[in-house]
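#lab-general

N.A. 3:47 PM
ok so I finally got the sequence cleaned up, no stray characters, all 344 residues accounted for. can someone with queue access submit it? mine expired

B.Y. 3:52 PM
send it over

N.A. 3:53 PM
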Amino acid sequence: MTNSRITIKDLAERLNLSISTISRALNDHPSIGKKTTKEVKKLARELGFTPNTMASNLRRNKTQSIGVIVPRIDIHFHSHVISGIEETAYRLGYNVTIFQSRDSLEREIAVTEILQAKRVEGVIACLGLETTDSRHFARFNEIKIPLVFYDRVSKDVESSKVIIDDFDAAFRATEHLINTGCRNIAHIAGNRNTDIFKARVKGYKAALLKHDLEANENLIQYTSELSYEEGATCAKKLLTVTPLPDGVFCANDNTAISAIQVFKKANLRIPEDIAVVGFSNYPISSIMEPTLTTIDDRAFEMGQTAAKLLIRQIEDKDQNIASETIVIKTDLIVRDSTNRNPKG
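B.Y. 4:20 PM
back already:
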């Protein structure tokens, strides 16, 4: 027997169990007791059993493949989301294929067509910056492929979503600046056509309003992609405003880091002259000088949650699961770039 491929049937005969019981035990099905599962796995190891997943998937008409569409892999947030998706999918027996839209609507549409042809089990996607009409994703619903959006989500297509509360996160970031003594607070904002960045602007303004501070439109600098270069350009423009801002809330860490460098070159002290808050908690934020106060958007957890949600919908496809929205809690990480502490 050791010279030929060991099958589930061989394991079943050795242990005097049914083939279905062996299969469930190998997949840690909760209906099988821990003792039986342990015995099955022990024998499988001893005999060198390896599952023929390709044949199994063909019989079940399953590919065990998930498609993921991200705007840009080289952005820290999306790479961490991907990592969370991949870790969870691998543990649950699924392969992950990743595509970049590079924030292009045309490319995003092409990727959705590729994924439909590849017969993936489900799709996780974040909309590109060019996407204002996302109805090209509706085809997944028509052909019964589960779909989960994360972060930048669709309002046009019925689907589950995993998001953060961008309004609340921006509100807390801005209020933190106010609590450190800032009164003339600027905002380096994201793309003005994108919902998550609109929400961050609203949260920023709401915090100012709560504390009877003016929301001066001259202190809001919009960007297209929140790039490092755009952050530097916005910071230079803020240096021409009178009076100078004494605090800046940035819609990502890239722009916050470049803004700090511009302010330091202008001989302004951080945080004494200008305090700065970022968004996303990039690794560099904890090692730069000064270290950056930021919002931790828990990207890895967002990826894990999106994968769990999608796989549950894949495996319970016959249960007519309703679409749901999961909101991931964010954390304000206070570091040196706002360490004024006037309230003691």
